[in-house]
Amino acid sequence: MADWSTLLRDLRDREGLTRREVASRAAIAPATVKAYELGLRHPSRELLAAVLDALKADLLTRNQVLAGAGFVPDGRTHADRLDNEWFTFEEAAAEIEQSPFPAHLGSETMDVVAANTAMQGVWGVDLRFDHRRPFELNLLSMLSAADVADRIENWDEATSIAVSVLKGHYGGDAAIQVEHNPYLAAAMQHFLEGEPAYVQRLLQIWAAVEPRKRKRRWAYPVTWLHPEAGRLSFHVQVNPADAVGSISFNDWIPIDEATWAGVRWLSANGSRGVRTYVARERHDAYLALAQ
User: Fold this and answer.
1) pTM above 0.90?
2) What is the spatial distance between Cα 199 and Cα 40, in angstroms, rounded to a whole number?
């Protein structure tokens, strides 16, 4: 392994910086940077850490340099290089726009507040124009809408997971009681106005499913029956996007080649003219209600 001074020089070359630029960022003299890189001077830990910060050193190399210079690694994580490891709403929306698979952002109350073109292709909608009424983009409400529910082959399984999460997060039946959660109570009321067969099935599931608290990373399966692309099977991975917990990534990851082929076909044929849907106003409305 290269010695610590050589690693410093390699880091600077990788970042495309001059010694003067590194010195300016670290608040030291350019001659000092040169002396460190040539191994002519031994830095204090404080000054070496400043140079590593200036070079935006990755965690592994940072610790190698510190240890090589005779110092204890500082225990940083990769996120410590960031001003904020969490996403703003706009950053999260941009993240799903670049995703190679269908993805949407969900609020804490299960509202869809953004969806990329691949996701809209799977759902068969252009959300700039479809589902504009209140609660029609709430996943709980959508489960009794025929154009959604009829396409979920594993409806009972997916619904059971959603119910267990809601009951676990909000304290059982309090999740849909007006006095405890007026928004979800209204969403449930909208659900109850849907297809009677699905309403009855959800009521049975609600009574039977035990509350379950989920950690930050959890998942649920969806088998989606698309009228043109066929049977699409997804492992939907859920991860928080912000520290507050009001936005989550829902990444619909295809689990077989047939699904990947279907997603590619939809991207080429079923999503023409569709753009990533971003509903910042829905997210802001939820935050206002939560306060």
Assistant:
1) no
2) 76
